[in-house]
Amino acid sequence: MAKPVVPEERRRRRRPTRGGTVLSERLIVETALRMLREHGSAGLTARRLGLALDADPSTLYRYFRGMDDLTLAIGDALVGQALDGWRPTGRWREDLRAVGLRIHAAYVAHPQAALLTTSRVTGRANELAADEAVLDVLRSAGFPLADTVTVYHAFIDQTLAFAALDAASLALPSAALRADEEMWRSTYARLPEETHPRIAEAAPLLARLMVTSAYPTALEMLLDSAAARLDAASG
Amino acid sequence: MAKPVVPEERRRRRRPTRGGTVLSERLIVETALRMLREHGSAGLTARRLGLALDADPSTLYRYFRGMDDLTLAIGDALVGQALDGWRPTGRWREDLRAVGLRIHAAYVAHPQAALLTTSRVTGRANELAADEAVLDVLRSAGFPLADTVTVYHAFIDQTLAFAALDAASLALPSAALRADEEMWRSTYARLPEETHPRIAEAAPLLARLMVTSAYPTALEMLLDSAAARLDAASG
DNA sequence: GACGTAAGGTCAATGGCGTTGGCATAAGAG
DNA sequence: CTCTTATGCCAACGCCATTGACCTTACGTC
């Protein structure tokens, strides 16, 4: 039966599958991440994962309550590696920039996985540590408490939002991706000046810029505004 | 057979279903939107939609190439109503704020639909019109072309990113939503000062703020930075 | 070292899904 | 009034997640 899932730390008997593979939460999550990368976010199915692990699909239910539970485990793994090894420098603007870019990068590095997990909230240790770190950077920089909370809220949600958005476009199936890019060339670049003058004049610049992430720019603009706010508060 | 989908404007024979309903793209999309609202983003299935329309599921394939095509049509409908009725005032900051809040609001008003469509790029008429409008606001305000494109990119992607993020949390099944809120109260509000001093001191403010969208704040910060940039360029 | 227990594997079945090919029928052109 | 064909219905296919029953082997105990 599937109900009583044994937590990883209490597992004792590691019976190999018929093919000789020895399973573990870690192995399953890593295999799932690889499958997501190779087959896209819809390519992760219990059957296929079982096949890749050389195990019956139903075996997965010994480790996770269902595919949704597995999804959360994958998200947890992503969050874990985002801030792994980061240390604050004491320069607030540099530190915030680093944290933002790291979280963004961790998600974008696994777009298909990010697609499944960005909207889920875990509230686990890694998330708490990141929040505490960001708040500490702001307070240590001299932001008053109210401003700290406001800037923190905008900062963290902006980071997650862009991570999700950029992951989504990276995770598009290659056919749809090609179609989108083609649309950029065929539609935007050729709009007549009479009906869309602003797009027409900006088309070359747009074509170069729109294929990159706007997150670094948006982040810098947010930091600009925060710096101005800090000046106003302390001077 | 399903292949040759007749475009809406060339339809002539409106044969009613067995139950008497007369189908149309519009009716199907509206019904789908209603089902999304009522049954969540996973509750939209061809079979259920057929049931709601009093038609065989396969009939849908006379109107859309598949469920994915229907998804795009839903997204197009959302974009359409976002800027419906908006007129620029000539004050750039006010205009950008209005466009951003309108697009954000349109998606958030249909969270489950937004969940399915925010990551898709249509390149259709409504999207083009919005882009042209934003570019025009910036150029008319006096932004140089390069700055215009940079600010436009950050503005539009930030708007879509926050729309997706906020829609995602609104679209959570109510059980998960309740669990998340409970987590906020039970975890963040009670973290010991020794291990998480910054979260502890900010907890009351956080609890009040985190349940709202950070988009208005982030938008205002982006406009702050853009205004400073405009000053620097023109003075 | 033998043994009993239950963790952790397999197998088979259920009900739901998107999608398609074949067929029936009625709307509208002539 | 007749003919064409757009548009509806039906039945079936091959996926999917999940579950209950069963089997087997790793390990703690003696």
CA radius of gyration of chain A? 22 Å
Helix content of chain A: 55-70%
Oligomer: homodimer
CATH architecture of the largest domain in chain A: Orthogonal Bundle
Q: What is CATH's topology name of the largest domain in chain A? A: Tetracycline Repressor, domain 2
The CATH homologous superfamily of the largest domain in chain A corresponds to Tetracycline Repressor, domain 2
Low-confidence stretches of chain A are none
Determine the number of helices of chain A (DSSP H or I, runs of at least 4 residues).
10
Terminal Cα span of chain A: 66 Å
What profile does the largest beta sheet of chain A have?
Answer: none
Keywords (chains A, B): DNA-binding, Transcription, Transcription regulation
GO molecular function (chains A, B): DNA binding
Domain HTH tetR-type (chains A, B): 22-82
InterPro entries (chains A, B): Homeodomain-like_sf, HTH_TetR, Repressor_TetR_C, Tet_transcr_reg_TetR-rel_C_sf
